[in-house]
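[Target chain]
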Amino acid sequence: MKNERIVDLIIWLVIAIVGLVAAYLCFGILDSQASGKYQGYSVGGAIAGAIVSWSVLTSVYLQVRKSSNELEEYKKRVDELQSKLIRGAPRPEGFDTEVSERDRLVLARPKIWQPKGGTIFDLVLPETAMKPGDAFPAAFRCYYLPIASEARKGAKKSGHAVLSREDWYALELKQIREASEFVSSFSHEMIRVGGEPAGVESLKLIARQCVRLMRKRSDWTRQYEWQWQVIPRNEFAGRIRFAAPVVLTVGRPQVVTLYGQGFRQGIVCRVGGVARQTELTADGRLHVRLVDDDVRTARILQLVVENPDTKGVHSNEWTLAVEAPTGNEQATPTESPQASVAAVPPPVAPAPGPAAPVKAAADEEKILYQEIVHMRVICYHPTLDRVYFFDFTDNLDDFQESSEVFNRILATTRFID
């Protein structure tokens, strides 16, 4: 509406200027002697020319504007009739019409069926907008779960309490604390969503997690897609569960075999922080070749393994004792820092970890491992009887920059009561 007024003002100004220019050209330069009467007054010369020019231009503009307004009115009327036609479409008895304007969809829903929640937005950064070498696109998802009024009534009758806002937030914190295997670290704070000061108090969680990424061509769209799955930290960084032999002898460098999980091709074992020659076998074991310096004196060796795509994140630390020879080569090794030979069962190779990425010429599948940051905001809105979830994910390297986008989304969020 404001824009229309500005356009009208500009056009009226143009008409006035054009009328004056026409009067000047026709009656100033060309010396026309036109005259006439305008609303009982006799006018002539340049004034008569200006009035004629203004009248003609004004008439033309009003006709054009009227035609434009009529088109807008017709369009609005068509939209209203179309909406009435859709909402009034025949439907089975006992059904209600559901219309999603945003998704351009209408369907009939059984009256007794109630929504159990649903996805409101599911957005992702397109691959064409990602940085070179970036394999994890930033993603945003908003969904909700209902706090049905019927459930409140039923709870009062049955005596079962409906979860309050505090209950929901405490439950979310409890779940993330119990998921330590899948969460490297997390933080939380209370924020307001929906604008100050009327915003709804909400819980904001930020968690670091590990994911396995797979890039493959969709059978349906024939487009390449990245699919990801949250995995335990041990699968991401690797975990040593047993080493053989359990005790080493001074002056006798040898190959140590490590058993564990999450070992992938290209993995390196570090002894005292220094890489050693490492070989991954087909059944998931690691052969680590020690050097003379490792067993030169009696000491404790500290071993960790590091997968090639973890950017310095390494496994748990495992210690091996290097002891002086006893003079009896067949003697039973003494107890190691982890367990004695009697206490530890014969090592059994665990199921091998995820296979190394295989280059398939047919579909160019790829498997990658990355650390990501998952930001979630939980907003319990009792007035709307809904709990809203706002989820944002991106890889660790890009999160600091991309999270600004998510914060802007939150800042512009408003609830329509």
